[in-house]
Amino acid sequence: MVRRNPVSLASLDLNLLVFLRELLRERNVTRAGARVGVSQPAASAALSRLRRHFDDELLVRSRGGFVLSPLAVQLAGQIEPVCRGVERLFATGAEFRPADAEREFTLLTPDYVLATFGERLSTALYAAAPKVRLHIEVVKQRLPTDAAEVLRRIDGIISAPTANFGAAGIRSLELFRDRWVCVVSADNPVGDRLEPADLERLPWVVPHHPDGEYPASSPLTPLMARLTVRPRVAVRVDSYHATAYFVAGTDRVAIMQGRLAALLADRADLRVLDCPGEPPPIVETLWWHEKNTDDEGHRWFRTVTAAAAHEPAISAVYAAHSQN
């Protein structure tokens, strides 16, 4: 357990705080040392000091490398807001200058969003702020249910609106809108217009749903309600971007985002069709905690992200695809 005795801030080496954050992220002494710019011996010495302080191993050797001890897992959930608070404290009164900034921004997002404008965001950030670091966490299966708590320790989540984002203290900015489309193999005998009956008959490729079904919170729920039988799921995959890989050359169908499908325009083995039932639009939104609203650096990050999402080249490709 964490020591309960009071600890004087003056007795602490705050360099250990920086090293501890990287150690918990990397789960590797050498990589953590490289992230903070210290040698292997210095990194090992820092780990020894941390182990003495917490009276815990922190990193435990396992068959595949190292894993965090139970205490280290607890610390990993605490250290990010602590470090961000310290960074904000020492940045108070200082103007945020992107060209000189060395701040790290953490973003949680589905791989679909990365496919549509992730590269453009990376390029824009690098051009304006080459020293700024970007930490991208890709959504695994489902978004966190405690969105407000997660947003206290990271800079933002990109997602369509759900009930989880209705909590107090969460702010938002619409990035772009999209629509649902159906993808089938080019040699699939279905016509150019799908009907609900086709969706009932064809096997499905379903992303990010471990039980093979669309949950009640899915934006496709109105469409699912129109089907008289449950869709037969042939493939479940934890990736939007990989969905199309399991459609070509089969009789399967996948429902996916239009902007993502537009990236498949040069594939002759796939067809993109309108989705029956007119499901509601997809409204991809950047969500953040209100504590970051007036932060000058965070405001700059939000502006760059929004500009990358609205890049005219993306809209042009999507518009051309929508007209085909």
Automatic annotation (TrEMBL):
Pfam families: HTH_1, LysR_substrate. Transmembrane segments: none annotated. InterPro entries: LysR-type_TF, LysR_HTH_N, LysR_subst-bd, WH-like_DNA-bd_sf, WH_DNA-bd_sf, YidZ_PBP2. This is LysR family transcriptional regulator. Keywords: DNA-binding, Transcription, Transcription regulation. Belongs to the LysR transcriptional regulatory family. It comes from Amycolatopsis acididurans. The keyword DNA-binding applies. Residues 12-69 form the HTH lysR-type domain.
